[in-house]
Design a protein that fits this description.
mainly alpha
Length: 138
């Protein structure tokens, strides 16, 4: 029997499936299982945040979403060197993905900005530029 058949609500099993899917480059499977872990644990699993961020980054879906996920993982596991290294590497590359990235820490302090990015994928939208202009003027 499949481990998920025995215990479909096990966050450990879903985390392991997400890891295997990442190794096999099966991105949608990895994303689904990492999301399931985050739902089952109420967002309190650093490995799930890290794995979901890896999918965002490896698929070029959204480096900004990957950055957010790695930050969440780092907040939960501040002593994990793999998370720190991935977050540092991504932070140093963000200027290539988003012009004006050096101004991002100012935006990042705004909880509204993070929720907008997460729920509406505005990193793909011209509204980001409008929001940036608005912040820069104030």
């Amino acid at each position: 029997k499949n481990a998920l058949d025995i215990d479909p609500d096990s966050h450990v099993v879903h985390n392991n499936v997400a890891l295997c899917a990442i190794k096999l480059r099966q991105w949608p499977v990895a994303m689904d299982h990492a999301d399931t872990v985050l739902k089952l644990t109420g967002g309190k699993d650093a490995k799930a945040w890290y794995r979901r961020g890896t999918v965002f980054l490896e698929t070029d879906m959204s480096p900004l979403a990957a950055f957010y996920d790695f930050k969440q993982a780092n907040a939960l596991e501040p002593s994990d060197n793999n998370i720190k290294r991935r977050l540092y590497d991504l932070r140093s590359q963000m200027g290539n993905h988003y012009p004006g990235w050096k101004e991002f820490p100012r935006r990042q302090q705004d909880p509204f900005w993070e929720s907008v990015i997460l729920h509406m994928n505005l990193d793909q939208s011209p509204l980001v530029g409008m929001y940036y202009d608005d912040i820069a003027c104030n």
